[in-house]
Amino acid sequence: MDPAPNVGKKVLIIEDEVFISDLYTRSLTKSGYEVTLIVDGQKALEAAQTNQYDIILLDIMLPTLTGTEILRQLRNPQLTQHLKAKIIITTNLELGEQSRADMESHADGYIVKAEVTPKELVVFLDQLQLNP
Hints:
Blueprint: E1 10-14, H1 18-30, E2 34-38, H2 41-48, E3 55-59, H3 67-75, E4 86-91, H4 97-106, E5 109-112, H5 118-126
Parallel strand pairs: 1-2, 1-3, 3-4, 4-5
Helix pairs in contact: 1-5, 2-3
């Protein structure tokens, strides 16, 4: 597989589960993405607000700040201006229809981790239309 199409694309993985973050990091790096991993919610929010990333993979359950809190702050133009990154929610939580719909309305995608292999994740991210 030719990694060239993804070279230079930066992904911020916000995930505190070591096994999952390791799988994602290896798979995305192998596919040419430049990956940064942060496990702490507050530190991840600060990194995301630097606007250096093309894609943010955002887990819901995190230390210090939840993914929901991070998402709200990233989508609030008074707290985060002109965020270019696509935000993809990654979770294994069973969310009710209303909660999931609310989450999806603020994110650019939603992935149930248990249902997506690392290879499928790469394919999903490869198909995203990134903002310049």
